[in-house]
Amino acid sequence: MDRTRPEGQRATGQRPELDADELRAAIAAVEARPSGSSDLPPLAPEAHEAATAALRLLRYRPRSEHELRGRLAEKEHRAEAIDEAIDRIRVWGLIDDAEFAAEWVRGRRRRRGRARGALERELRDKGVAEAHIADAVADIDDSDERLQATELVRARLSRRPAGAASGAARAGERRRLVSFLARRGYPTGLAMAVVDAELAAHASS
């Protein structure tokens, strides 16, 4: 989503990572324009209202097209106005589900440690097309999943005293850590293998 390109011009090449400040600056620039321009006709009155509402929503964070359509429908805009508003926002370069999916995966893995399966489910809930979801998670393989799960468990264990624990305490810790990984979408088998390995290493340190 190239926020410096003229209206109607498509970007090519690799997509840059979304930036919240950049998005807000782009929205401010759009809001300062007249509703029509040399290459775009003015929006119909209700479509202009819908587009304005969509820009307010995008000011908080990027959203999928499905999310925007749903929120505008909740505000009781007619379908025709929503279609016109979404089309204009797409031309402005402020909505792109492929880029949205890629940034969602980057951010959720970095900040929340989400597993591939959890990310896929979240994007489906946001109405993102399967092709965009597949592209967004394509670089996450089994070794990446195991490495991230290991880092999550190590971070948890680093806040606990090292050394052997009683059998009951160790079993309880194991259950909590496996549940911790499961909530982030890691398969049970992987979660148990990672937790067992890290508990053993922690006990011997």
From TrEMBL:
Annotated protein name in UniProt: Regulatory protein RecX
Positions of the RecX second three-helical domain: 96-136
Predominant cellular place of this UniProt entry's protein: cytoplasm
Keyword field: Cytoplasm
Role description: Modulates RecA activity.
Similarity section: Belongs to the RecX family.
Ranges for domain RecX first three-helical: 52-88
Organism this protein belongs to: Dietzia aurantiaca
Region (Disordered): 1-20
Subcellular localization, as worded in the UniProt entry: Cytoplasm
